[in-house]
C-alpha cells in the first residue's frame, strides 16, 4: 500500500512539473528578445546599390532668418536671358557680357533668388535685407550648362532655367544628366511647356495638356515639385492663367517688361529682358529701380 501511495505521489509531481513548462509568464524575457530581433530585421539598412534620389529641391524650405517685412506689395526684378553666346539677334548675350553682369550683381551685394524664395517674397511681402534678383534663362540651350553654369558657380549664384520638355537631349539643348547636375548646384529647372507652342493659340484642352504634362515631366525627372512656368514667347490668354493654377504651378512669367509684383497676378509676372550691348550702368539702374 505504501508503494502504491509513493507511486501516485510521484505521478502527481511529474504532472505538475510538466504542466508548469507551458506557463506564459515563464517566457516573458525571451518574448521581449524575440520581438526586438524582429524589429531590427524590419528596419534593415537599405540596399547599398540603390541610387539615391538627388536633393534637387534644396530651396523648398526657405530660411527667412534676417528677412524683413515690407509695407507695400513687394516687387522684384526677374531678369530674362536665353542663349549665353554670340548671335545675330537679341536672344544672345555673350559670355563676357553675362559674366560682367553677374559680377556686377555680386559686387553690389544682391542676393540671387530661388523660385521658392521669389514666391514667398511676392505673396507674403517679406524680403531679404539685401537687394535681390531672380535670374532666369529660357529654352534650356546647351550653353546654359557649358557657359552660364560655370559663371554662376564662380559667383555662388542661384538661377532658374525654363526647359522645353521635348528639347531635352536634343541638339544644342540640355541633357538630363546636365539638368540633374545643375539642380544639385543651385540652378532650378522649371517648365517651359512640352512643345514650346504659343498657348494663346491653342484650345483649352491642348493648353491643359502642355501645362500638366510638362509639370509631371519635370517633377519626375528632377524629383521635385515644379512650381513655376514660363509661357512660350510670353503668349497667354485668360484661360492660360486659370489652367496654369489648376495644373499645380504657383506662378508664371511672361515677357511683359518691368519688375514683378503680385498686383500683375501671380500667373502673369513681368520680366526684364537683358539684351546684348547693354552698358553696366544701364544694367545697374534697371536692377536698382526694380527693387
Brief sketch in words of this structure:
With 291 residues, the protein is an alpha/beta fold. It has a single domain (72-237, 249-290), classed as TIM Barrel.
Question: What are its keywords?
Answer:
alpha/beta, Glyco_hydro/deAcase_b/a-brl, signal, 8-stranded parallel beta sheet, 291 residues, two-stranded antiparallel sheet, 9 helices, TIM Barrel
Q: Give the SSE order as H and E letters.
A: HHEEEEEHEHEEHEHEHEHEEEH
Number of domains: 1
What's the count of strands? 14
CATH topology: TIM Barrel
Q: Which percent range fits the helix content?
A: 40-55%
CATH homology superfamily name: Glycoside hydrolase/deacetylase
Which shape, going by the Cα principal axes? globular
- Average pLDDT works out at 85
**In percent terms, what proportion of residues is strand?**
15-25%
Q: Which blocks of ≥5 consecutive residues have pLDDT under 50? A: 1-59
Structural class: alpha/beta
Looking at the overall shape, the CATH architecture is Alpha-Beta Barrel
Radius of gyration: 31 Å
Protein name: Polysaccharide deacetylase family protein
Keywords: Signal
Pfam families: Polysacc_deac_1
GO molecular function, one term: hydrolase activity, acting on carbon-nitrogen (but not peptide) bonds
Amino acid at each position: 500500500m505504501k508503494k502504491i501511495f509513493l507511486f501516485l505521489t510521484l505521478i502527481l509531481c511529474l504532472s505538475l512539473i510538466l504542466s508548469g513548462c507551458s506557463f506564459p509568464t515563464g517566457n516573458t524575457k525571451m518574448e521581449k528578445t524575440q520581438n526586438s530581433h524582429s524589429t531590427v530585421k524590419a528596419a534593415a539598412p537599405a540596399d547599398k546599390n540603390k541610387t539615391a534620389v538627388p536633393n534637387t529641391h534644396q530651396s523648398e524650405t526657405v530660411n527667412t532668418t534676417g528677412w524683413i517685412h515690407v509695407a507695400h506689395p513687394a516687387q522684384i526684378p526677374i531678369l530674362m536671358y536665353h542663349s549665353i553666346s554670340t548671335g545675330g539677334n537679341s536672344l544672345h548675350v555673350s559670355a563676357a557680357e553675362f559674366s560682367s553682369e553677374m559680377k556686377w550683381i555680386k559686387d553690389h551685394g544682391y542676393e540671387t533668388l530661388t523660385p521658392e524664395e521669389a514666391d514667398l517674397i511676392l505673396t507674403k511681402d517679406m524680403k531679404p535685407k539685401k537687394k535681390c534678383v531672380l535670374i532666369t534663362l529660357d529654352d534650356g540651350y546647351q550653353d546654359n550648362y557649358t557657359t552660364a553654369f560655370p559663371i554662376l558657380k564662380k559667383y555662388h549664384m542661384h538661377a532658374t532655367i525654363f526647359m522645353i520638355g521635348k528639347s531635352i537631349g536634343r541638339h544644342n539643348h540640355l541633357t538630363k544628366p546636365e539638368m540633374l547636375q545643375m539642380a544639385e548646384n543651385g540652378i532650378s529647372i522649371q517648365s517651359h511647356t512640352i512643345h514650346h507652342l504659343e498657348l494663346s493659340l491653342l484650345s483649352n484642352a491642348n493648353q491643359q495638356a502642355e501645362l500638366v504634362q510638362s509639370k509631371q515631366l519635370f517633377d519626375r525627372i528632377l524629383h521635385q515639385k515644379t512650381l513655376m512656368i514660363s509661357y512660350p514667347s510670353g503668349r497667354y490668354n485668360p484661360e492660360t492663367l486659370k489652367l496654369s493654377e489648376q495644373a499645380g504651378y504657383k506662378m508664371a512669367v511672361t515677357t511683359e517688361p518691368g519688375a514683378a509684383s503680385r498686383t500683375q497676378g501671380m500667373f502673369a509676372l513681368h520680366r526684364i529682358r537683358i539684351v546684348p550691348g547693354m552698358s553696366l550702368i544701364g544694367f545697374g539702374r534697371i536692377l536698382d529701380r526694380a527693387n
